[in-house]
Specification:
InterPro entries: XkdN-like, XkdN-like_sf. This protein has helices spanning 43-52, 70-81, 90-96, 101-108, 111-124, 131-139; strands at residues 17-20, 36-39, 54-60, 63-68, 82-84. 43% of the residues lie in helices and 17% in strands.
Length: 140
């Protein structure tokens, strides 16, 4: 039996932060692509995001079920993971003529860039591995 203290909060790893060049279109003064800063999140944060992207849908009179909009969920997941640039900055949103971080992402990125960012954010938050893959990784 292993020591339970390895699971105590002070011993848990900190949230992971990575830099990711979403696009070569955003360049610094030296002409180099500027990397975005991304962070991982907790399942509690993820649940809040999922709930924000879930609406109750009426399936028949008096009966409703929760339905998560996957497009909205991914957009909110990305926004919560992006540290830099600050997608909630009003001047940045204004420069693209939009209001809201999710709208900003859709306006400032090309479809392939958005897809690459979504993939990186999902990978950073552990969505890149299946349960059997994680079991194999732990065994090794």
């Amino acid at each position: 039996m292993s020591d339970l203290s390895v699971f105590f909060a002070p011993n848990a790893g900190v949230a992971e932060m990575v830099e990711f060049a979403v696009s070569s279109r955003f360049k610094d003064a030296a002409g180099q692509p500027v990397s975005w800063q991304l962070r991982s999140m907790t399942e509690a944060e993820n649940e809040d995001i999922r709930q924000a992207a879930t609406k109750r849908v009426q399936v028949k009179k008096g009966v409703t079920i929760p339905e998560t909009n996957p497009t909205e969920y991914v957009a909110k997941l990305i926004v919560a993971s992006v540290i830099f640039p600050n997608l909630k900055d009003s001047k940045l949103q204004e420069s693209y003529g939009v209001m809201g971080a999710e709208s900003l992402l859709r306006k400032m990125l090309l479809p392939g860039e958005y897809a690459a960012l979504a993939e990186k954010v999902q990978e950073l938050n552990g969505f890149d591995k299946s349960v059997p893959d994680m079991v194999d990784e732990v065994k090794n």
